[in-house]
Write a structure and sequence with these properties.
Blueprint lengths: L4 E5 L22 H12 L3 E5 L10 H15 L5 E3 L6 E5 L21
Parallel strand pairs: 1-2, 1-4, 2-3
Length: 116
């Protein structure tokens, strides 16, 4: 059993990003590789949370978005996952199409970054 949780970005990572992504209740088609990865983590007893700006405190329709995402998770993953826009000390990984991993305490990018 892991102590902590894995965050998985929604648009462009767990679901295919499309022009309707700005609608709070539209959730795109699943990205099969990520869906299977999430199911594997869950089977291994790892907590997984959806990490998305759609439910940020500045999002006008965040509860509608949260409800639509939970419904999508139930349909495609088989369980409702927690949906958040906040990191905490329990997060052990974040899977996201926009992240650049940085070596701890150095500022050095671990992978080739698109900028800087």
């Amino acid at each position: 059993m892991y102590n902590g949780w894995i965050g998985v970005d929604l648009d462009g990572t767990l679901v295919k990003y499309d022009s309707e992504a700005f609608s709070p209740t539209h959730v795109g088609e699943p990205v099969p590789l990520m869906v299977e990865r999430v199911k594997g983590w869950l089977a291994d007893g790892i907590e997984v949370r959806i990490f998305t700006a759609r439910v940020a405190s500045t999002s006008f329709n965040r509860e509608e978005a949260r409800s639509a995402i939970k419904k999508w998770c139930l349909e495609h993953i088989g369980v409702e996952l927690d949906v958040t826009a906040e990191k905490d000390y329990g997060m052990i990984e974040l899977w996201d199409d926009r992240c650049v991993q940085v070596e701890e305490n150095t500022g050095r990018a671990i992978q080739n970054a698109k900028s800087g």
